[in-house]
Amino acid sequence: MDRQPTYEELKEFWEWCGFTCHKVHQGDSYWEKPNGLAHGSNPPRATLDNLFKYAVPLAVEKLQQRYALTKPAYEWIFAKLTGAAVKGEDLGRALFWILREVLHG
């Protein structure tokens, strides 16, 4: 899938990854990283570096717990990502949707 995630999809995804959204006055918010450090006023972007740093390790752990995989979980993720690359999809977005499927399921 090569569509941009909505704010709500990003918010839900990054909260699964340990980020916290704190609401402050007048509807403003700020995000906190899993280590407690401030991130900013918006959820992290779904870039390859953010996804590999925060989401891939969680997805690998979840895949290994959920299934008796015949190959390492990283290989499963890379196989899906390779399929998206062959189709010419944006890799950051493709990886976001792959990981969202794992973490949401």
On the 0 to 100 scale, the average pLDDT is: 89
- End-to-end separation in angstroms reads 17 Å
Give me the number of helical elements.
4
**Shape type:** globular
Structural class computed from helices and strand pairing? mainly alpha
Q: How many strands?
A: 3
Q: State the helical fraction.
A: 40-55%
Q: What's the structural domain tally?
A: 1
Q: What is the helix/strand order?
A: HEEEHHH
Portion of residues in beta strands equals 5-15%
Oligomer: single chain
Tell me the strand order in the biggest sheet: 1-2-3
Radius of gyration: 15 Å
Poorly predicted runs are: none
In this structure, how is the largest beta sheet organized? 3 strands, antiparallel
Structure description:
- Helices cover 54% and strands 10% of the residues.
- The chain has helices at residues 7-16, 48-66, 73-86, 91-104; strands at 20-23, 29-32, 38-40.
- With 105 residues, it is mostly helical.
- It has one domain.
- The mean pLDDT is 89.
- The radius of gyration is 15 Å and the shape is globular.
- It has a 3-stranded antiparallel sheet with strand order 1-2-3, covered by helices on one side.
